[in-house]
Write a structure and sequence with these properties.
Blueprint: H1 2-17, H2 35-54, H3 66-79, H4 81-113, H5 115-128, H6 137-144, H7 148-172, H8 176-184, H9 189-227, H10 232-241, H11 245-273
Length: 277
């Protein structure tokens, strides 16, 4: 028995000499973004794109070079046309997004907290949400007349449904144990909503903001292409009809930069409101 125990200890000691360290794998799936890697990849794409244009590998009518697009943006800015189109688009996006977001938050909380509102609201949202909102623009023009109202209403409708869905999904994701605990201490209903439900649903609400900002941008471009004289969408459509592809892509770049700005603002809002995570 003693000999076997000694042999086993010697084997364990010999095996211990061959052990190697294993990398820690408990990161918890928390990927981090690298600002420089993204900028470097973007710079490589732009350089290759410019090189293809400079070497005449690509027809400039079909794909202008980045320098041609930059010159078109500078020309638009210096002429004042860029700021005029941007002002109309931002007014439509801001008004429609604000109206749709406020209504969506109210309805989403009602669905998440009320049995009657859930029974009625989910039925209507499920039936109306799949409808392309831009298809309703002609009907809204008949109802509201030719002007800014139908465009703003189209954006508000698109934002409303996505916001309502994200809000009541966030309310449903709040741990019920926290709500029951607050109820057991006789905390008022509105206080529970403000102190428990709202913070718990806020990550989903802010994630919904990212989606609705993109929806508002898509809808404003579509609405302006159908019936508007000024706006980035109207400018892009006009440039496409005239085969001015450098100005067309200049409008696309402006829309992309506007989307990046909105995404950055929402990220700052998330860091400010979700610092407790």
């Amino acid at each position: 028995m003693l000999d076997r125990a000694g042999e086993k200890s010697q084997a364990l000691q010999a095996g211990g000499d061959n052990l190697r360290k294993v990398a820690f794998r408990g990161g918890g799936f928390s990927p981090k973004t690298s600002r420089y890697a993204g900028l470097l990849a973007l710079a490589v794409v732009i350089v290759l794109w410019q090189a293809a244009g400079s070497l005449s590998l690509v027809n400039p009518i079909f794909l202008p070079s980045p320098l041609a697009i930059a010159r078109a943006i500078v020309q638009l800015a210096s002429s004042g046309a860029l700021w005029q189109h941007l002002a109309y688009s931002m007014m439509r996006i801001g008004t429609g997004w604000l109206l749709g977001t406020v209504a969506g938050i109210i309805v989403g909380f009602a669905i998440g907290l009320s049995t009657l509102a859930r029974s009625v609201g989910i039925t209507f949202i499920s039936a109306l949400f799949p409808i392309p909102k831009i298809a309703l623009l002609p009907l809204l023009i008949l109802w509201l007349g030719i002007g800014e109202e139908p465009k703003i209403a189209t954006i508000a409708l698109g934002v409303f449904f996505s916001t309502a869905i994200s809000v009541y999904s966030g309310v449903d994701a709040v741990p019920r144990n926290l709500i029951r605990m607050a109820q057991s201490f006789n905390v008022p209903f509105l206080t529970i909503v403000r102190r428990v439900v709202w913070p718990g649903a806020l990550p989903s609400i802010l994630a919904g903001f990212r989606i609705t900002a993109s929806i508002a941008l898509l809808l404003v471009v579509s609405a302006e292409m159908i019936g508007a004289e000024y706006g980035i969408g109207a400018f892009v459509l006009q440039a496409g009809n005239l085969m001015q592809t450098d100005q067309l892509l200049a409008g696309v770049v402006i829309l992309s930069l506007f989307g990046l700005l909105v995404g950055w603002l929402i990220s700052r809002l998330e860091k400010r409101l979700l610092h407790w995570r």
